[in-house]
From TrEMBL:
It catalyses: 3-hydroxy-2-methylpropanoate + NAD(+) = 2-methyl-3-oxopropanoate + NADH + H(+). Belongs to the HIBADH-related family. The keyword Secreted does not apply. Coiled coil: none annotated. It comes from Williamsia sterculiae. Pfam families: NAD_binding_11 (PF14833), NAD_binding_2 (PF03446). Residues 3-159 form the 6-phosphogluconate dehydrogenase NADP-binding domain. This is 3-hydroxyisobutyrate dehydrogenase. The active site is at K168. GO terms for biological process: L-valine catabolic process. Residues 162-287 form the 3-hydroxyisobutyrate dehydrogenase-like NAD-binding domain. SUPFAM superfamilies: 6-phosphogluconate dehydrogenase C-terminal domain-like, NAD(P)-binding Rossmann-fold domains.
């Protein structure tokens, strides 16, 4: 069992850290928001008053922060206090460029470092079933696997540094487009006199099937657990989809890629987030009726 520093004990980091404690690790946590720190302490995390102090005795340092800028600032603050040879794992969703920058900063200080963003949301974080998309060396990924395992349903080594973030933005760009077009299909079906249940039964047994239908169905009825049955309570909040599409668009621009549907989806969610950031992103169907 290891001593693990966990920085960022919010909606995702709190339950992830709790799963590490439950697996028998010693977890040293830090979060500047007192309520987040208190919730983590109640699950067995030893909370420190600063990130620098939390990392001092840790063999592994995990960050789960809102943005790339915060990860960069956090690394600048904590690296001087980290143990020689500590393994750094960043599970925040940040840009590929930021992922490469923080990898370089950690490497210059003598540390192995991985980008390891996740999919699965707060539910997956709580259940310990997150999908980790990992970028970095084989040796670092091998060292990280037993640490990630109590938080993970699966751990996919995607390639070199930045590949985990690349996989995450590509996946979420697909998801954004699918959720919009699934909404379009259900609205069109309604206008054609086709019931939502019939369309659901056909799509889920046919070539249009995808998570945006079989799990996150945007109309009430066919999937009782989908946010459409619960006033579009997330789920995956529109604000987070908007953030991830922003990162996807950064990547499209920096690589001079052509992504007309992803770009249009980013525009649609940029307009929707203004008044609906807290709703599940499947609520986009409401703009199509
Ligand atoms: P959150 O805002 O609930 O938690 C982030 C926490 O980081 C906050 O409690 C904040 O106080 C803390 N923090 C900020 N600066 C810090 C610092 N220097 N040191 C320590 N803690 C600091 O956000 P979240 O929903 O937990 O998301 C975290 C990351 O995971 C984001 O990058 C997000 O995009 C990604 N993500 C979220 C979800 C989701 O469903 N919420 C799903 C997949 C990925």
């Amino acid at each position: 069992m290891s001593t693990i520093a966990f920085l960022g004990l919010g909606n995702m980091g709190g339950p992830m850290a709790a799963n590490l404690v439950a697996a028998g690790h010693t977890v040293h946590g830090y979060d500047p928001v007192p309520a987040a720190a208190e919730r983590a302490a109640a699950t067995g995390v030893t909370v420190f008053p600063a990130g620098l102090e939390a990392v001092m005795d840790a063999a592994v340092v995990i960050t789960m922060l809102p943005s790339g800028e915060l990860v960069r600032r956090c690394y600048d603050e904590i690296l001087p206090g980290a143990q020689t040879g500590a393994l750094f794992i960043d599970s925040s969703t940040i840009s590929v460029d930021d992922a490469r920058t923080v990898h370089q900063i950690a490497g210059d200080a003598g540390h192995a470092q991985l980008d390891a963003p996740v999919s699965g949301g707060v539910k997956g974080a709580t259940a310990g079933t997150l999908a980790f998309m990992v970028g970095g060396t084989e040796a670092a990924v091998t060292a990280a696997r037993p640490i990630l395992e109590p938080m993970a349903g699966k751990v996919i080594h995607c390639g070199a540094t930045g590949s985990g973030q690349a996989a995450k933005v590509c996946n979420n760009m697909v998801l954004a487009v699918q959720q919009i077009v699934v909404g379009e299909a259900f609205v069109l079906a309604d206008k054609l006199g086709l019931s939502a249940q019939s369309l659901f039964d056909v799509i889920t047994g046919a070539t249009g099937n995808c998570w945006a239908v079989h799990t996150n169905c945007p109309v009430p009825g066919p999937v009782p657990t989908s946010p459409a049955n619960h006033d579009f309570r997330p789920g995956f909040a529109t604000a987070l989809m908007h953030k991830d599409l922003g990162l996807a668009m950064d990547a499209v621009r920096s690589t001079a890629s052509v992504a007309p549907l992803g770009t249009h989806a980013a525009e649609i969610y940029a307009a929707f987030v203004v008044d609906h950031g807290g709703e599940d992103f499947s609520a986009i169907i409401e703009t199509l009726r």
